[in-house]
Write a structure and sequence with these properties.
alpha/beta, Gyrase A, domain 2, Rossmann fold, about 10% strand, flat
Amino acid sequence: MKIKLQLSQIITNALLIANIQADEIVISDASKPEFGDYQFNGMMKLAKELKQNPREIAVMVCSHIDITGMVAKVEVAGPGFINIWLNDAWLATQANAILEDKRVGVGYVEQPQKVVVDYSGPNMAKQMHVGHLRSSIIGDTLATLLEFLGDEVIRQNHIGDWGTQFGMLIAYLEEQNTDGNTQELKDLEQFYKDAKVRFDESEAFANKAREYVVKIQGGDEHCLMLWQSFINASLGHCEEVYEKLNVNLTRNDVRAESFYNDQLAQVIETLKSKGISTTSNGAECVFIDGAEIPIVVQKSDGGFLYATTDLAALNFRDKVLNADRICYVVDARQAQHFKQVFSIAKQADMVGAEVSLEHIGFGTMMDKSGKPFKTRDGGTVKLVELLDEAVVRAKETIKDRDVHSNEELDAVAKAIGIGAVKYADLSISRESNYIFSWDKMLSFEGNTALYMQYAYARIQSILRKHDAQIFGDIVIGDELEHRLALMLLKFEDTLTKAAIEATPHTITGYLYDLVTLFMKFYEQNPILKGGIEEEVKMSRLQLAKLTASVIAKGLELLGIKVVDKI
């Protein structure tokens, strides 16, 4: 239900009748219920153009607003704000229309795009750690959301599987006489440390490792076989994490650094032919206006860099995948890198001028002291271990509630624990750093997954207690029911905003406001209490049922499973 769009059209019509032209109509949510449901505050700009008093213009526009259908009342406030109240009957009709809709009233985008979302991107030399959490879940949420709204989404997992470290790793793999599927690779972190010790202690081994790097790059069959077995084992670790996280990345989505290796020389040739790069001290560089240090795309020894691979990837995503929008869900500290790479790609026509290139940056997960999240000995926290701990802690949180069998408890603990980790991350503005806190994320209070889960489970309990068919329509009887129905109908506008701005916290913020409002509604408007008229009871049951559907769909888009009982 694109309410803001409909209101914009109503305001536009009123302006046209009043012989006033406006380039853009911006409708915003009213800050308080007493100010209406929505506001139009574009009078100051119009007043400057028309050289008239903004309040007088607002009064004139209000006189032409149609209040026979969607709009119940309009009112001029302050220097020229137009406060808008929606009609109860109209709200009820719209809410009733989506009661049995699996999409809960959310339509599809009018002009679908082909969108590439690059996210997760682990290094195959090591197991995934907490630093990969944000990219994986923010990227997956964005991809899922865009798909739901009707875009064609191409997930791309740009894994790090190339470079000098792999010569060392496959040499050690060979020395251990393993095929990449045995216990030696169960702990990739330890395997890497052991290989590094061997590299540092043995000059013969170090020379062999360097030789194997050259052989990998040259296509040596034996070395490539060892390399592929290592990559397969490493991807297996990643897939274990993705399964736990309920993240939709598969082997088919992997587009590794090695995939672009054969295209890197052409990138350099393109930059040279267009006069974009310059040879400096034997290296090929691109000098960008305003930047003190050039972007090196080829070292003096002929080696390539991350920027070169990123340019090849951009060219592939434009020319082969035919993307309209390319989103990189990568740490905010890489902002300058992507700004420069995007600029070069556009200059070199590796990406068309009409293609949107976006760096979806995010902040760092911190511990309670405000420092990057580490283990007690200062090492990186393995993501799989963090997720396993989340499930254990969730089980401790709910085990005394006596509503689950042992089998149910395990399943519910998994849904709640993983959901808590994801929601805590997604509820923060992605550009911000945030403090990781078990106590906060597993709390039944505040903007947490558990608060959402509890609200959903509570509604399911109400529906189970009713234990009969729910029939009849939603009929709005008071201010709380008006606000709840309106909030439910705002879901589509919320998702649209989150998709355009790539802001998952827009969805979590909406869910928190919805659940908080429902709890007030539930406390003040009894549903199953005796003595309530049947029509009122059914209306409130329908509102509760629709609320549960929206909560479930919102959490589903965030990759979080709901539970019927907590």
